[in-house]
Protein 1
Amino acid sequence: MAAVLGLIAGSYEQVTFGYRVNTDEPEWTAKAEFTHHAHTASISAAAASERFVVTGSKDETIQLYDMKKKIEHGALLHHDGTISCLEFYGTSHLLSGGEDGLICVWGTKKWDCLKSIKAHQGQVTSLSVHPSGKIALSVGTDKTLRTWNLTNGRSAFIKNIKRNAHIVRWSPDGDKYVVVVNDEVNIYDLETASVTATMNNPKRISSVKFLNNSILAVAGDDEKVRLCDLGKEKWLCEFKAHENRVKAVDSFVMEDHSILVTASNDGFIKMWKLYLKEELESPTLLMEVNTTARLTCLAVWKPSSVQPPAEEPAAPTTTPQELIQELSKTKRVRIAAEEVILEDESKPKKKKKKGGGKKPTE
């Protein structure tokens, strides 16, 4: 883990706040690094890779910020409506979902829109890429949970969930996932694609984050954060994190403990130290900073965080069992503009087609 971290938070006031935290110091402090006022409406989503920070807004744009050069890097224009979710896979791809029902796959080298998928009849409310990079899950306001084969941009299978879910997340090991509907956390098993347990939060849930493969941090429309053990199907502890509702949570691992990061409507970003042991105790506060804005989303920038390249399946899947078989394959696929290329050294490679979204500034 690098000694320097970045905390990125978006706000209702259209401003993105960037802070720098030096974790080598005995007492952690957050120093303001930048404010980015490129959006013309409230910010709805944020994500970070090794180099870039991206924010999505109700103004229909995705704004880019280069964390290494400390400069604005332009805007991505493809969605028609609010950008509802953003997620990087490693350093090579960004996925975005929007009010228009589209999921877009962006290449981070030239920032082309490589694939545009009509994912849901209503809004795409959340998406999550499997740790292998082979598939993605999405939920939307059409009351469906969809599994996507990232090779061809087609739906592997669709599950009707009867209600509108607003969060979906894979576990770090990729053997299960959670789907959040209002105040419920529904735990799904990969093999059966069925709900194995349901955990109820006292308030509507705004954000969740896996701290490890079984412990989930849950924030909702109150000032508390609750930790849940999905394997044991029980709540472990809860603590008051803010003076107002908690809008977003993120986390990362440092040595023998986890760092939980929270952001709230009260304007504060806070960092908490937590030991994931048998008898889980409430975390201790490491650092806090007041942005004086109503925060909506959060991302942690870690310059040394590098994921392996995506390895994706070569054929569509239609059942959970076929999906598991595909996840065990080792062939690698890279996505090119408007097509997919299966890398095979025994055959000549196809030429890439040009196309995609608006390029950012160089």
Note: The helical segments are 320-327.
Protein 2
Amino acid sequence: MALCFFFFFFCSLFHLSLSSTTTTANLSISFPLFTPHSHPSTTNLLHDSLISRKSVVQPKGTPSYNYKLPFKYSMAPIVSLPIGTPPQTQQMVLDTGSQLSWIQCHKKVLRKAPPPASIFDPSLSSTFSVLPCNHPICKPRVPDFTLPTTCDQNRLCHYSYFYADGTLAEGNLVREKFTFSTATSTPPLTLGCAQDTSDTKGILGMNLGRLSFPSQAKITKFSYCIPSRPAQTGSASPTGTFYLGNNPNSATFRYVDLLTFSQSQRMPNLDPLAYTVVMLGVRIGGNKLSILPSVFRPDASGAGQTMIDSGSELTYFVDEAYNKVKEEIVKLVGPKLKKGYVYANVADMCFDSNVGPLIGDMVLEFDKGVEIVIAKEQILHNVEGKVWCVAIGRSDMIGAASNIIGNVHQQNQWVEFDLANRRVGFGKADCSRSV
């Protein structure tokens, strides 16, 4: 997947792909998460005539959404959303670790062949508009992105994201609406419009930032249920469920409060826009590991923050926690450890078979008695061939000083983000079923 790293205090979460095929795999640190080889290009621009399109006036009052849809799960949840008027279906990575949503656009007049159907065609939408560089969003008091927004040669607002591998994702900021039904749509939202890239999937940014999808659409609650993947790589992607608005299952959820931070708290290692929770410890095979709870909480520099990130495949721990987990794994199944093997430079608890049943269940403990239980059969993941690895990486190897709960450890759980009450809920479920 992708590992994005925002400098300043708006650092986003870190994403890593398990798509590598060699034992000496490098970090896949690009955007979006499951296609690490392409980035939006700046060589082509939207047609000048798009500037003349007018934005739709936002309706009065706060909109109410109750929308359910399935998604495909490969290395992250992939939702298909209707965007524009008339709507064009766009595939987007559901990413609670990102702020700006962006879609793949194209400049029709520059293409000799029709583009893939999943790429958005601005010329077909009556509600599409671009942001000029004198728009307030383009000149924020505090930058929203790694590099300041700029004016391109057409006086349009140009944004850039800088990633840890030194590459850029960039394009123009635009405005467009999501149309869920004839009776339900969002007002025009600010999105990124990427052009001339081979990738056909975008990002649905779901964090706490002012430009995230929930913030702009005034969505106060959303939830998803990520199914377990087939044991072997290459199998068909399973289907999960995504709710915008109320979830009929929420009466069974247990909630942990979000830690919130002022955006003026410019700690170098802190992401104040992430979904940060209080984690207390880890149990493996019924044994509570000797990890101080402070390891999972941000210190004065922001290091140690624990985040819930649907866009990160792996879970990552800071060294103090990772070393204790490895110590316990080695104690239980050390002779079977694949010596000298490090997957993607971050995970070195790997084996030639799924030894999970010998390890036992793993439990992530949170505040208020909330737990995520990872069944022993699901602790390890088949990363390539017959190699299985515990799906936990060292966060310092991706340049982070954070604990990140990735989507592999959110499988078969309802995860609900209750923004109005500043909390995250969890509920055990069989996410492969219609729920």
Note: Helices lie at 213-217, 319-333, 356-359.
Protein 3
Amino acid sequence: MITLSCLIMEAKMMYETIFARSFSRHEQKKLGYGAFAVCFFITFTIFTVLKPYLGPLPVLNLQLSTGGFKMLMVEDTTSTQQIVAEIGRKEMEALVCNIMDRRSDFCEMSGDVRVQGNSSTIFIASSAPVDMLPENSSWSIRPYARKGDARAMKHVRNFTVKMTTGRQHLPHCTQNHTVPAVLFSLGGYSGNHFHAFSDVLIPLYLTSRQFNGEVQFLVTSKSLRWIEKFRILLQELSRYPIIDIDREEGIHCFSSAIIGLKCHKELDIDPSKSPYSMKDFREFLRSSYSLKRATAIKVRDGDDTKKPRLLIIARKKTRSFTNDGKIAEMARSLGYEVIVAEANGTEISRFAELVNSCDVLMGVHGAGLTNIVFLPENAVLIQVVPLGGLEWVARYDFGLPAVDMKIRYIEYQIKEEESSLIEKYPHEHAVLRDPHSITKLGWLELKAVYLDKQNVKLDLNRFRNTLLQALQLLH
């Protein structure tokens, strides 16, 4: 329309400036109509010829309406892409499936939703005629928030979301529910403490918090140990018993459901994509576990009555501090109250209280650092990065999320002489001289060498400045 208007105006201006003085008013009028017709014909021809070669516009909304059926097929913007299907009827059924997100696939639906656990199928009814349904009226969803990781996703059960025409083609309900449902998986890497939060708990909070507890959780790959570990958080998010959907032979019916979990990034929430933030999630944790401290201590010069508490995360199997006793002794000499504890050896509610009581948390890169979610605001995280070119994953997993949690972040990268790898490989070995040659072989090779076989013996003189820097941040 804009192009057509411009052409018309240009033609009119050309006509007025060149021909106006040469013809009578009646002849000018006839020529004007003729110019308009010529411009319209040329514009129409250009659009017709070039249409197949024109790229998509930044936002493309195509709607088809026939009776009660309305379908919004594609929405494409520079920031997000969604494949969307909407079914309109008196009860306003709807199906919205996002399969373009980098971290997870999920479908949101309302209307007549029926979940058949033994066939891994979720049905939603449409009032549209069969020939009006989209060509592909089913979506496959693996409800775990790490879809780009093939190793994780091969342990996640696949569910099919299927749109059918009319209730007569739906399986009969054996159990009706009065609240919405959220279906998610405890497969993948959820047994790892970091992945439990990054892949499940934070996405589950993002997806279900809006219901204020009035939601039913359907779990696939259920782990009783996992559920017991995080029972307090699960009960805060849902007031109803968890359904092990893998064992259900009947048909569970809901008025609305979300299949899969919304997820933004590692151990973090993007507030531009959600009404919630990491501040909200951390307040949720403090409330759930009755944590007392909202902010870290403020150190004042000359005040020896309040010592900042330093928690050293110990590890037994790998990436452990081989001189943690001397680290603790040095820290005490600088004015810290020091605690050394292993994250896996304590019930999570008790460990959350311990972390919340501290002002500085330090540890070698690993799942134990996930406990920064319990630190008070303005506390300090010291992440010790082992050899192996791991700076990128250290910052991505913990450095950037710490900033969004209002936690001050210090990164300490060890030198070769601080790594136990110097005792296992010759001085000129590629493991020490060229870590990139190992990491380019893939994550499994990197993990086997630099994460599974490496311990750390900190240079106390060098690390002393890091502890002093943390003290300065607490002033």
Note: The chain is about 30% helix and 20% strand.
